[in-house]
């Protein structure tokens, strides 16, 4: 009997120790998962200072303003099997309701054509696929930044945007959302308190993991834009993958939230004529920016004052500001920014370009 009691005691101790050990590992596992998501999402890397002497050749070059990093394909994106159907018109007469419901069930429902049917691979194959990285000659003189002539020609041809009307004191706030770092809710609070409407560019993993935030964006009058499923360098993918990255994300977004995209922002600011043409075929305006700064590194936040001075010194008519929602500095300084931008006579406009 004593031996049995001793064995049971040892087993209970082992179970207890194992439980403690596993419990201590859970935070580490969760942290590792978030870190993997951060590493998968490689966002635009503008240097702290913009140098007008730097070269723009559309090829990888460490001296360019944008650090160009190829992104490995993330885990395979599985589309939901759910199909959204157009609802039939309902009759007001109570006596006909049940019959109407039965008729609706028996009638075939018209499906909206998939976006993939719009892409013309044959036409895309005829276009130049030279990779360019978005580059702007930023300044602190509150005038519109310059861009290379090749960039200007391409965005004019394919409905690209990097500023609004530069004759008007308008400012546009745009946020890139590759993964959630805990600040988007605060950003939305500040925007709501100040009656500001913005646009959020989202990826495949973001729309799957953050439904409450996406729904709140839409309910509070913001727009949501296409930032691709897996955030790859789009000039480096073939037509089939390009279709999945753009049309695939929109189809999934429509399944989840019943909304379509109007705008697309290419990951890392990397584009080509072929990519811009594909976006236009899908009905998107491609959105670049006239201001960005190194706010994406969550381990190198420089404080509210740095963020404030950086943004305020680069305001200009029609400015499209690229901000990352993962930035603690951006979240904490946003209310002050909005108030002081308005104090300088600017109107922060809904994204209606």
Describe the structure.
By secondary structure, the chain is an alpha/beta fold. The protein has 2 domains: 1-32; 111-348, Glycoside hydrolase/deacetylase (TIM Barrel), CATH 3.20.20. It contains 11 helices and 10 strands. Strands 3, 4, 5, 9 and 10 form a 5-stranded parallel beta sheet that branches. The radius of gyration is 25 Å and the shape is globular. 36% of the residues are buried. Residues 42-113 have low confidence and may be disordered.
Keywords:
353 residues, globular, 10 strands, 2 domains, five-stranded parallel β-sheet, alpha/beta
Write the layout of secondary structure elements.
Layout: H1 2-40, H2 97-106, H3 121-125, E1 132-133, H4 149-157, E2 160-161, E3 170-177, H5 184-193, E4 199-202, H6 204-209, H7 211-219, E5 223-226, H8 239-257, E6 263-264, E7 270-271, H9 273-281, E8 285-287, H10 304-312, E9 319-324, H11 328-343, E10 347-348
Parallel strand pairs: 2-8, 3-4, 3-9, 3-10, 4-5, 6-8
Antiparallel strand pairs: 1-7
Order of helices and strands: HHHEHEEHEHHEHEEHEHEHE
> What's the CATH H-level superfamily name of the largest domain?
Glycoside hydrolase/deacetylase
| Radius of gyration from the alpha-carbon trace, in angstroms | 25 Å
Q: If classified by CATH, what would the architecture of the largest domain be?
A: Alpha-Beta Barrel
Helix content: 25-40%
**Termini, distance in Å?**
82 Å
């Amino acid at each position: 009997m004593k031996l049995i009691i001793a064995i049971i005691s040892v087993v209970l101790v082992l179970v207890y120790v194992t439980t403690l050990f596993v419990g201590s590992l859970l935070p580490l596992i969760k942290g590792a998962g978030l870190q993997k998501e951060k590493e998968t999402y490689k966002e635009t890397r503008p240097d702290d200072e913009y140098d007008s002497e730097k070269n723009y050749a559309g090829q990888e070059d460490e001296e360019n303003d944008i650090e160009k990093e190829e992104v490995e394909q993330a885990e395979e994106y599985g589309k939901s099997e759910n199909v959204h159907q157009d609802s039939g018109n309902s009759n007001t007469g109570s006596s006909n309701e049940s019959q109407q419901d039965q008729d609706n069930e028996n009638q075939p429902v018209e499906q909206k054509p998939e976006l993939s049917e719009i892409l013309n691979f044959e036409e895309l194959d005829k276009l130049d696929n030279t990779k360019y990285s978005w580059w702007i000659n930023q300044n602190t003189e509150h005038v519109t930044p310059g861009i290379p002539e090749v960039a200007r020609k391409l965005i004019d041809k394919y409905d690209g945007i990097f500023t609004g009307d530069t004759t008007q004191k308008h400012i546009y706030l745009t946020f890139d959302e590759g993964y959630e770092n805990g600040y988007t809710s605060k950003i939305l609070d500040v925007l709501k308190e100040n009656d500001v409407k913005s646009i959020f560019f989202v990826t495949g993993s973001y729309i799957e993991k953050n439904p409450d935030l996406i729904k709140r964006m839409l309910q509070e009058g913001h727009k949501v834009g296409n930032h691709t499923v897996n955030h790859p360098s789009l000039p480096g993918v073939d037509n089939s993958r390009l279709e999945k990255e753009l049309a695939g994300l929109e189809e999934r977004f429509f399944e989840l939230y019943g909304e379509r995209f109007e705008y697309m922002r290419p990951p890392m600011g990397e584009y080509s004529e072929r990519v811009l043409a594909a976006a236009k075929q899908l009905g998107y305006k491609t959105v670049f920016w006239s201001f960005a700064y190194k706010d994406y590194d969550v381990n190198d936040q420089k404080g509210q004052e740095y963020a404030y001075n950086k943004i305020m010194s680069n305001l200009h008519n029609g400015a499209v500001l690229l901000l990352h929602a993962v930035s603690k500095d951006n979240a904490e300084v946003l209310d002050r920014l909005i108030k002081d931008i308005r104090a300088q006579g600017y109107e922060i406009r809904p994204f209606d370009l």
